[in-house]
Batch of 3 targets.
Target 1
Amino acid sequence: MIVLRALFALALGTPLLALATDEPDTPRLGIAPYEAQYKASYSGFPIKAEHRLTRTGNSYEIQIKARNFLGKITEEELFHMDEQGAIVPDSYRNDRSVMGSTRKESMAVDHASGSILAHRKGRESQLDFEPGQLGPLSHQLELARDLRDGVEELNYAVIIRGSIRDYRYERRGEEDLETPMGTLRVLRLERIRDNSDRETELWLAPEFNYQPVLLRQKEDGSSYELTLQSFRFTGESAAVPGAEQQ
């Protein structure tokens, strides 16, 4: 069930309402709420998952639920956008139950004091919060926005597992990919890790605003795969170029 976390915390991007302009002081625009259904395979065992983004005013919530007969995982992150449209994380939680064993992880940002309070495996830790740091789920939103805006360096400081970690991605070209939603032109990315034999590749569809349609991960002779089965905008989809409400 570790794969449930890997499949989502590493990969899922988020649709955007529009591209930012070329003006440096122009705020980056909002995010389109949506729902997506995924199917995954871990060593031959099927996994179903749903990924949802909702918005209330200037606050957003990303929620991921994944399950199979061995257990389930729920991840949630709350964040907001500042006046310039930058993503600012507020809180995160991860609840998992696998074969009767439960584990919880959480973090909360105190913006007044500039600190992060994290809980994991029964331990509490406090970190300094700095502008630009992102949550485990919201960093994929920033990745999607950077891809749309043509940003070269895809590097992110992510608050995860009681520490700040560097997440790096590199482009590996474009290709046509057969999916349950038809043939899509996709951008292939690879997550770059130092001192690790884990390989993670993502295929993202520009016409879906860089929503991942396929993820593959290999480690220690095992391989995992995640595929997008369905997708629909639930709020402001009319403002998204090339997207249709399903």
Target 2
Amino acid sequence: MWHYRRVAAETQHRRKRDTSAPRANASARAHAYTKERILDGSLGAGEVISEGEIAEAIGTSRTPVREAFLRLECEGLLRLYPKRGALVVPISHSEVESVMETRLLIERFALSKVIALGIDLAAPLAQVIARQRELRGGRDRREFVEADRQMHRLIVAATGNEIILQLHDSMRDRQSRIGLIALARQDRRVDEIIEEHAAIAAALGAAEEQRALALLDRHLHATLMLLRGPAYLRDFRIEG
């Protein structure tokens, strides 16, 4: 009798596992699909979306989409309203300022430490800047923004401080949204970013700490000034 109960329990467990795995995969697909479209701006700030829309788009039921929406709410990208849908959370002015301030603190520390340690980043920085030059004429700015983030991450990672790196990585989604907004505000910003990156890399390679810090300050400040522009609120429905 005990043997049969054990077999029955194992069979029931397998059935639960077999049915939960596809739902987990569907939830992951719904999460990735929705998140990508929020980050690239296809789903605009302030737009209301429904579980049904996403379910139909990826060919699944509403249950895994609901689970994906809950994850995105925890990540700060959606705000859920029962029976009404989910709001794509706009980026607030204070959030932009906070992200840029945090980046400045982390990246200034990273530049100084890399120079103090004598770490040679010439080759990897040249590679990522070359990648940005390849992407400069493309219509899809997502890859350019990611290459931009990778350039700065290289320097932070080189410090060997995992806590600092984790903090920097935690801003990835915000950096992507902010970066795309900045590029949409001014086309020539793409070329400016590449040249500013090259100048920072050169100063870093020459161990010119004060020059590198000044260039970084100017680089991040230029992006912040674009985001503070009068069209920022109108074009992207940013919350005050």
Target 3
Amino acid sequence: MAGISTAHFLKASGHEVEILEARDRLGGRIWTDREASYPIDLGAAWIHGNNQNPLIDLAEKFSVNTKVTDFEDSFVLDNSKSISKLKLYSAYKKFESYLNEGEQILEEANRNLSLRELLDIIYKKKDLSALEKKLFRLFERGLESENAAELDKASAIGYFSESETISGPDFLVYDGYDKILKGLLGNIKIHFKEVVKKIQYDKNAVNIYTENNSFQSELAVVTVPVFREAERINQL
């Protein structure tokens, strides 16, 4: 979304803009499947908080339908039998308290751990019931969704360093998150399947070379996922 947002604001400021997209679709974490007669979001699906959240403004601007949701209204089945809200809530509070113990474990470890490693250390010290083990796996999927990464790739230090800056309810986007992307894109030209291999600067222009083509521009803005940049730095 960073690339399309940047392109949108540059275009609105009067600049000529084109986007080079490595994938064959719009979005990174945002990935809406419209093969069926209704949209299915395979990536981002919620807007978390509405207090000064620009995503809420964009959803309203582009007529994106949302619905307030609440975790406490979750309906969970175990072997076709409903789990009471009290049991679900109690298990979640226990999971949350166990996870909070991780800060002390991180201090003692004196190194970064993945969330998977951290939880495994915590679980070894606990006596979980069969139901709690099942529910904890459910809560772990929620952690992966929040961090946009599998637990063995998500940083525990990063998790505890995060600070909530946007308050308010959670909104489910139920007619396709890609409507926000398409609204931002407008009539901006986008080139799909253009994997950038090299960027060269000289006094007059920026030359961009992809696997298939070359492009020239006065300026270039590079927006890549954080984990991709981390991988690049680790390879240096």
